[in-house]
Structures
1.
Amino acid sequence: MIYTVTLSPTLDYVVSVDHFQTGAINRTQSEDVFPGGKGVNVSLVLNDLGYLTTAMGFIAGFTGAEIKRLLRVGGVEGNFIQVERGMSRINMKIRSDAETAINGQGPEITQEDIGTLFSRLRFLIDGDTIVLAGHIPPSLPSDMYEQILEFLKGRRLRVIVDAEKELLTGTLKYHPWLIKPNADELGDIFGVRIHSREEAVPYAAKLQNMGARNVLVSLGGDGAVLLTEQGEIFSSDALKGKVVNTVGAGDSMIAGFLAGYLDSDGDYEMAFKEGLCAGAAKAFNLTMTTKKEICYLMRTTSFDIQRKQKD
Ligand SMILES: Nc1ncnc2c1ncn2[C@@H]1O[C@H](COP(=O)(O)OP(=O)(O)OP(=O)(O)O)[C@@H](O)[C@H]1O
Ligand SMILES: [Mg+2]
């Protein structure tokens, strides 16, 4: 089974407004509601690609109930812990001349709620995959991902971590199967700026030395580079197309990478290709990535992947 953990999932309320003004009444031209959060996004894309996942995390209030309902509509089974105080976040995005976002805080999560999460994680078994993705809400300990991996130590799991700074580096001693920093996140870890795939390679290699098995660095419209546990480096430009909305391209890439890996019985080049297509499929669409779009890109793209052995 594939488990995704989104500690504070959201309801994304996306509206478009002509010439949005502060201090005035604005009327919407369109409005949509989507379930959101990084692990939730990974679950939705994987589900569309034919992989069942269980989405875990904490929810509360009527917004929490709606997140769960919308995920079920999207085919994703939730195993969320219902917490008592507060409500799941609403993240509001206003599309106008410029884009404005207002992100909610999320519910108050207690020590007891954390205990419930661990009691549910007990059921993970060898061969399962767990995706830990996104920020840690303020009411949770900042080393939450480390605590989860410490708890799961000894099980042969495929662990994927998508997080920033110490939240990511703290998990490396548990040898995650995949980490996917973008160029800014990779640069932030080492206090440098990364401008190209070539520049990313030595820093990705450092993360491998610190414990990560496979490191996928995404550079938005500049493509991605993958350092595998077999000592290979794959590098590629991004796919070409009309870019509409790149938010969530990284989450989509993770789902595509995992599906490509599982579909091909462990071929990293196939995983890399499907990751590139899934990332692009998100960038080329306003809302969700779909299997239809990913398959179309997989079929019609003539990939130009540079492949070499790590020195
Ligand atoms: N403009 C684009 N054109 C084509 N492909 C893109 C574009 N932006 C992103 N992608 C694809 O998606 C992958 C992931 O994108 P990106 O590096 O923006 O992830 P991210 O910063 O983690 O995003 P997020 O955190 O919002 O999910 C890229 O490596 C690329 O393959
Ligand atoms: Mg990201």
2.
Amino acid sequence: MRVPTLSFAIMFSIGAVAFAAATVPASSNAQGAAPAADAANPDAAQAVSRAEAAVADLGRSLREALMAEMAGKGPVASIDFCHEQAPLIAEAVSQRHGVNIGRVGVRVRNPDNAPVGWRRDVLDAFAARAAAGEAPQTLQHTQIDSAQGLVRYARGIGTEPACQVCHGASVAEPVRAAIQARYLADAATGFEAGSLRGAFWVEAPLSMPAALPVDHRVAIPLSSLHQAELREEMRGQLMTVQGIVGALAAKDWTAVATLADARGPGSGRAAAGKGFRTQLPAEWFELSRPMHVDYAALADEARNGKRIEIALGHLESATSKCTACHATYRTEQTSRR
Ligand code: HEC
Ligand code: HEC
């Protein structure tokens, strides 16, 4: 059975509205929870804001990545995608905000997401509050631990209709089979819409390390799809370099010429089908064009001169464009595909 893709996109965009509306200030903290941040403790207040920002970022990033994958490739492919990307996305968010962050589930699919320690206690408390009628997404927990020098923060995750495709009571084939194949002990089904699915948790240090590296590179906004395409193209670039170094070591000049030709002038346009190219600034090509010219010179040397040191010089010149561009640009995910 094929699940229609369009309706997912619609469900997700409805969900996104609900999600944004569910973001509530820390002051709506539960009674009984440890003291929330207050103005008297600016470090704590700052750590709490960082924790809240990190949770909003993780929620948004996971949602956008999943939405793009669901709309582009459907739910079955999205399962592998979740498996591979969810931990990477959490890691990136963790670095961006200088906090530890993750998510736990009431019942889990990936055992890595099982709640332990304070997360267990908080999730139990969330479950009790949800059972008493509080909306899962509004549940928050904030605890300042001065002894440990950190703030523990958590926010509930509700089950939306779109989530039920993979977490509902009846998961349709072939989605069910794909989940089973990947997660032998999956327990993360049977969630009703509006029920507590889990929680995002954060441990934010009270004082930030003095020098969080500042990223001065120019951000190129790309949809998650275009970003994935660009990264794939880049990994291909690295494989070319690897292939050429290996071929030079083996003095396989035919292979050097073939690999370098494939990256010669105009080769970028071979990837013209890839939409990401239309999103790049004009200056991008001023950095990449000379790289293609270096590859052409390398191919020429491989066919005619066959001098290792000249060939290596061309390769060094080509790879200097890689490092120059990497020092200049980074990408930034946008919400649109
Ligand atoms: C395409 C299928 C799919 C959809 C749709 C989906 N999830 Fe998941 N979900 C997964 C997979 C796969 C994992 C395990 C990821 C991993 O390995 O870390 C997961 C894990 C989770 C976890 C971590 C706990 C656990 O069970 O491992 C939470 C929380 C979660 N999902 C919430 C949601 C919410 C909320 C939605 C809807 C907005 C949603 N999911 C939609 C497939 C899906
Ligand atoms: C004109 C700009 C530009 C040039 C030239 C360029 N890159 Fe990149 N590359 C980027 C950007 C921007 C990223 C970061 C993408 C992102 O945000 O994840 C990147 C990312 C990468 C990555 C990481 C891919 C991933 O999966 O995350 C690799 C590997 C890479 N480049 C290799 C190379 C190599 C090797 C060369 C030269 C032979 C090269 N790049 C030339 C702009 C460039």
